[in-house]
Amino acid sequence: MKKGLFLLLLSFTLLSFTSKFSGNYTYQIARMKYKGGGNWYDGKTSLPNLISFCNKNLGMNINPQEAVVEPGSAEIFNYPMVHITGNGNILFTTEEAENLRNYLIGGGFLEVNDSYGLDSAFRRELKKVFPELSLVELPFSHAIYHQKYAFATGLPKIHQHDGGRAVGYGLIYNGRLVCFYNFDADLGDGWEDHEVYNDPPELHEKALEMGANIMQYVLMGQINNVKKT
Predict the structure, then answer these.
(1) Is the pLDDT of residue 2 over 70?
(2) Fewer Cβ in 10 A, N or C end of the chain?
(3) Is residue 150's pLDDT more than 80?
(4) Domain count within the chain
(5) How far is Cα 142 from Cα 139, in angstroms, rounded to an integer?
């Protein structure tokens, strides 16, 4: 993407973020439709449930319908946060990786849910986007765990899978968190309708609360960054 077009798209996006405060804008969150054969569509009720929870409990004004966006599309710049989930292969072309890099450097955010099996493919493809960076485990003191809801010991573990520890990883570019990756926690399953997995109500609530923290951290961070410019 040419620099001028990128900056133009970004300026429209940032203006949209700020207009929410005048009551004229509804945020919309996008799900990424990626190549590679993985089930990018996994968890059909997860994002709608999380959005509903955020609108009710955080007073947010998020469009209840998720968008679907491809990594190489110019439309990705319309969304402050893009959700990636699945448990299979994921593949970015060179052009898609470049577009994602521009999106994240320009103020966008990736929220990534490992639905058991995405890990190796996601880490491989993320290196195409930021070859100079690596995911790091975020400390429990990180602000993402201390928004409206406090998670003093990090991510809640929703599904056991192999019994490993739930870990919250971050990708940090120039001091800013541009990607949050929940591994072996499976927050996305926890956001689903109760009858999908029959999770205990307390786990469902914890998953939604942690998801709401992510939303609050990302959306309020976008607003604060715009106000500083």
Answers:
(1) no
(2) C
(3) yes
(4) 1
(5) 6
